[in-house]
Structure formats: structure tokens, C-alpha cells
Amino acid sequence: xxxxxxxxxxxxxxxxxxxxxxxxxxxxxxxxxxxxxxxxxxxxxxxxxxxxxxxxxxxxxxxxxxxxxxxxxxxxxxxxxxxxxxxxxxxxxxxxxxxxxxxxxxxxxxxxxxxxxxxxxxxxxxxxxxxxxxxxxxxxxxxxxxxxxxxxxxxxxxxxxxxxxxxxxxxxxxxxxxxxxxxxxxxxxxxxxxxxxxxxxxxxxxxxxxxxxxxxxxxxxxxxxxxxxxxxxxxxxxxxxxxxxxxxxxxxxxxxxxxxxxxxxxxxxxxxxxxxxxxxxxxxxxxxxxxxxxxxxxxxxxxxxxxxxxxxxxxxxxxxxxxxxxxxxxxxxxxxxxxxxxxxxxxxxxxxxxxxxxxxxxxxxxxxxxxxxxxxxxxxxxxxxxxxxxxxxxxxxxxxxxxxxxxxxxxxxxxxxxxxxxxxxxxxxxxxxxxxxxxxxxxxxxxxxxxxxxxxxxxxxxxxxxxxxxxxxxxxxxxxxxxxxxxxxxxxxxxxxxxxxxxxxxxxxxxxxxxxxxxxxxxxxxxxxxxxxxxxxxxxxxxxxxxxxxxxxxxxxxxxxxxxxxxxxxxxxxxxxxxxxxxxxxxxxxxxxxxxxxxxxxxxxxxxxx
Length: 610
Hints:
alpha+beta; single chain; 2 domains; 8-stranded antiparallel beta sheet; 610 residues; Beta-galactosidase, Chain A, domain 5
């Protein structure tokens, strides 16, 4: 079976670093790399080794296993055409079939907990006279940037008995390479690599890479092994490969193993990366994704460590929504991140058994959040006289619909956004304020019901009747629903009719003012479409939960068939997709909360309990 050459693969190191690329071998993003490391886990990410060029020589001729695209769009060499099979389990593996019948098995894997990538090549069947040449392509740049030929790059190689060491730039970690082949120093620049995904996103798309030399192997004598590591030379490849094999076998399902990719180190604790390849850990994303990635998979210790790590960051009732890449002050610019933390704590305490001290610390953080919001905090966030939560000020985006272009906040949603009220009232209930919850729930239904459309307003004070998916949180996705009975059913019906797609819910219904059918173009065009019709798979979680809630427990099999079938067989789920058919996946290809919500749903779909 011919593989999908455009599909992307991902290998992570548990520190925030990773390797990624396409099945074809062509790097289409600036983020595709072999050794991309987090110098201050999980941030401070740098690309050290971008790629390699691999060539096999047999008695019949020379054949490339690599493919690159060079500006203005020339593909060279032609290795992708020799790919016969690709496997993603237990790590990326290719079978290349050369024109003379020689078959080469190539594998890539990243060591967990170490900034090390391992590359292996071997003959599928023994053949005499087969040699392999591998040329590393290096940069040494911030992973958001691009690299260009310059006189400051140092090609020098320090050759030791067990390693070759390069130090391209003095302020970055050295690159260690270990192989069972021979290294020959042959410095050169490779110019004008073209990254087509960056071009399509309206961004800078060309890069120059440096190659200090080549490694040569006798494939007829056995497997070729090449390791790249940041800093000290890595442990032997066979040892690391055995450890990874055992570690990966320990996961009960492929989805559970995929979930592991997002759990990374922060300080002495843990956090969740929001998505690969360009996100780090975001507060809102972490707390939404944690319920599926950790709690639904039984990883309670990791959930505890993540929640405790964040519990110490409460400031005036708020948690940061983002830690920056290079040590800048955390960004406290989200009204809902703190409330999602309270929900995550509730769900954690319901299924796990933390120590009394940990329980007290987590509940104290929830209390600090509710108290801070009650008294008032940044950006006009405060408990209003009606018991609901008011938030917002001009020029600031506070909800998850947070796209901003210059000074233009695309979806400002100032006032009382519907999902923020659902989260706020849940936080009140979680913190033991039952009377406030009951009063707020009654006010919510009175204020938010839009009888003209048979569903909920997206925002009140001032009222905004735009048909968006945020209202689904009043019925599903949270511990305590705000609507029941006929109105809950009507909300779910409206959302299903106008917003549901096979990949998730649209962020705005077709026909609404400003609806954007496709997420494409340059940064301005894409940001303008981000929450204006673009599909978000993570919203499948609250929607399917709400759908089952209003249709009854016996509807679970139907819900599984209707709403979860498109995700069968997938091990990663993208961030977004186009609002119009065929709902082409867009954005970040490996998204934590998209996968997390699918994992959270699965136990619900496999039990009669609700």
C-alpha cells in the first residue's frame, strides 16, 4: 500500500523538544527537524539538526533516500519516489525499494527524557557491496526563525574516539554525533530550501543549512547507526532503543501513547504542551486537555504534578494563559484559564486520592480564583450584581476565541460570554458556594435564553445573538450543567444542525455575518478566520456529551457511530479544519486538547453510567 507522503510524523522527548517531518521526507515547515531541543524545558527551543541527506550506493548505481524542495519549487533529490511502505508504530519507519531491487529499512526515534534522536538504516535482505553516505544539515536557530548562510557559522569538528562534536554558535548547546561509521570533514552550504507550508501561510519560506561533513557506512556489514544529541554524547543507541521499545509497549492503546507526547517537564514538575510543532504550555489548553490526556488514561500522578505546578501561579484570582519561550513574564490575559483549572481540580479529586496536603493546596488555589474573581481583578473581570461574571475591556481578547490582528480583536466578546458563565457557575459549585450556584443558574437561564432563535445568546451585556458553539457548555463538557429538559434539547439540536461537522463544531454558523469558510492565506487572513467558522475538533467533547445527555444513555452507540467514527484509527488530531467541506485539516497538526477531549469521551461511550 502506497503511504500518504504528505502525512506528518512526530517524535517527542518529554522535555519540550521533538523531531518531525513528512512521510515523503520533504520538510514543508520551518519546524520540521531531527534535533529540535528545549534548552529550558519546555521552552527555549532551538533547531540544531534540521535534516540529513542519505544516499545508498550499490553495484548497480547510486540512489538517494532523501527529498528536498528548493526555491522556486524544484524537488531534489528523488528519494520519495522510492518509498514503498511507511509505519508509524512503534516509531517512524520507512522501507525504500531501489531500482535494482535492494530494499533499505530506515527508522527514526527520539529518546524519552534526553535531547537525542537516533537514526538507523539496514538492508532488508543481505547484499554485498552496499554502502550508505549520510550528510547532516545543521542550523542552530530559534525554532520560529529561519537560518541563512553567514560567516559566523563554525564548521569545525572536534573528533573524539566516540563522537564528532560541532559548535556552530557559541551561545547554543554543542551538537554531538555518534555513529558506527566513518566521518569525513567536508564543509558546505546548502541554500534556498523552500518550506511550502510556510509559503502557503504567507510567511518567510526559504532557508540555508550548513553541512560540516559526511558519515559513511558499509550496509552490507550490518545496521548503520547515527545519533545526534544536544550537549554531551548520548548513551549507546541499542540501550536507548531497548528502553524506548519497553516504554512504548507499556501504553494500553495507541491513543494513550499519543497522549504521552504532550506531557513534558517544567521545573521540578510537569506541564502539558498545547500542540506541536509551535505551541508550548498554555493555561487554558493545559486544563482542558488534562482531563483526557491524564485523568481518562489513569495518569493521576502526572495530573497531580501538573495541577500543583500551576496552583502556585495564581495571581489576583488569575492563572497565566501562556509562559513565554525565552523567560519573559507570564501572560495573564485569559478570563477562563483559571476557571478551567477549577474544573480540572474537581475532576482530579473525583477520581484520584491525593495526600491531604496536596488536596488542601489545590482547593486553596480554587478558592483564591473564586475569591479573586468575586472581588474583581485584571481586565474588568468581576462578579456582577446578578451573580454572573463580567469581563473585558477594549483591545483585549480574554476568551478562548482570542484572535487579534494588530489592534483589531476579531471576536472581542466583552460582557458576559456564555461559556464563561458556565465555567464560573461550575467554579462556584466546586468551591462549595451552592446558593450562589443555584441563584446564578436561574439568572443565567433568564438572561441568556434567546427565544427567537431557540438557543442561547453568545454574550449578554451587551447581547450578541451570533450562532456560535460556546453555548454547548451550558449542557455538556462541565461537571454541572446549567440547562436541562426542553431548552437543553433545543440548544443541542441547533448546534448540531448549524455547527456540527465530521471533524468538530464550527466556531460560527454559515450564513452569519463574517462567516469564513476556509482558514487560509497570510497571518491576517488566517487570524480573521480563526474563530469565524473554522472547525475546532476539541469541541466534539462537550457536544457529544451534551448530545448523549439530552438523548439518554441508550443513545451512546448511535453517538459513537455518528460523531466519533471519523476519528477511528487516528493517533493524533489537528487543531482546526475548514468550516466548509471537505473540512481540510489546518493549523497545528498535533493538538493536545483535540486528542484530550476524544480520550475523555471514550470512557463515557463505553459505560452505561452518565
